[in-house]
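Lecture 7 notes. Example A: sequence first, then its structure tokens.
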Amino acid sequence: MPMSTVEAVPGEVYPNADVALESALKKARWRLLPLLAVCYLVAYMDRANISFAADSMSRDLGFTPKIYGLGAGLFFVSYALCEIPSNKLLLRFGARRWLARIMLTWGVLAAAMMFVHTSASFYGMRLLLGVAEAGYFPGVVYYLSQWFPPAERARALSRFYVAFPLSSTVMGAVAGALLRLNGRLHLRGWQWLFLVEGLPAVVLSVVLWKMLPNGPRDADWLERDEREALEAAVHAGGADGTHETAEGALGRVVRDPRLWVLGTFYFFALGTSYALSFFLPSVLGELTHWTAGRVGWLISLGGVVSAAAMLVCAVHSDRIGERRWHVAGATLAMAVLLLAAGLHMAGTFAAAALMLAVVAYSAMQGPLLAVASILVPGRNGALFIAAFNMFGITGGFVGPYWMGWMWELTGGYAVGIGLLCVPCVVAAGCVLWLTRKSTAARA
């Protein structure tokens, strides 16, 4: 809707809402997305860096693949249980306070992983880390849904979530160097890995506290007409649930059948991703016979390719207004690649198939998160996104445990990886069913 011409900043005027909206979005892209992406990059490193520590830590502490797989997965149990409470607290305390708190506690606990010395302490620390980090990802997805309208959302969310594949690039590049510090100051290499990679989260918690506004109304870098245009675009056509009680909102979300279908998709898709990623350095080492350093650089390259695929797919999805096949097509591609790798688990062919499966999973993230954030608008969307992510995080527990169990049962990774094609096919079926008539598939 056209607005009267107003002076927004000295020497510059916005003749209508469209110009004011674009100015506001440009500011939000540069002020919010890089900061939140860097924070998530650090978060993902702190939850997944045990994949690089796995071999040396297991040797030093006598862990079997089953113990390692269970410990890797236990993170997701406490994480899943705390997802919805965390997002309810985010609504109560505001994004700035709550996200900064999350970063501080997970940074301290991630560094404290260096003190693990038994399987029991390993399990306990992973559970505590899950409690500390719970809510960051769904909290940010909800937070960004308050800044970017639906037509822009896949691109915005992908520019935040691009930290997911790039975390593999950073981990792969630095893990080898940190592991080579083995013996320095009487610390093992894996202890250096946990210590050094945990500290950035503590520093970033202070940055979030100082720089992150709770929402557009608290952003002093937005002019009044920019703020009004942005809020009108974000909330157009959807109730925000402001006057509904927390209990009523949660009940409405839990009874929504779309949550259960989309949650089932994410359970299988994210479970498959974590089943692969937590064992990927070990699997690639076996396939290529490369050192940990060279495998790290291979994973780094895969992270760069995955990041590019995520951004390109999100831009294309927004441009043509299609979500359904951007998500389902990538999921089916994962199924084919994992089955091919499982059937021919040797040499560079299997290694390439596994790396391409990682790329396919990354590619669908922008359209997927756009669907999740559009289905339920407003404040109730915070609970919907948290519940949706809770399903996926539960899969994150099952996936690594599955791989460790299958390794002990069969003596290798081939069967476990090959059978991951089944949850991928089920996941694709879920998203195709959900979006068959939904405007979210085209939003």
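Example B, a different protein, same format:
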Amino acid sequence: MDIKDFKAGSYRKGYEHHYFLPEKINHSFFWTNEAINELLEKASLKL
């Protein structure tokens, strides 16, 4: 799944309120922007 096509979830209407229902994230993601690789490397080194 391309990361730019991912939707975090959707809002649903309940009885007298709205709520957020997150999507499942059990996917293999890929991206075409090489800057994301560099940012992930920097973040992992800081962790």
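Note on Example B: The chain has a mean pLDDT of 84. DSSP finds one helix and two strands in the chain.
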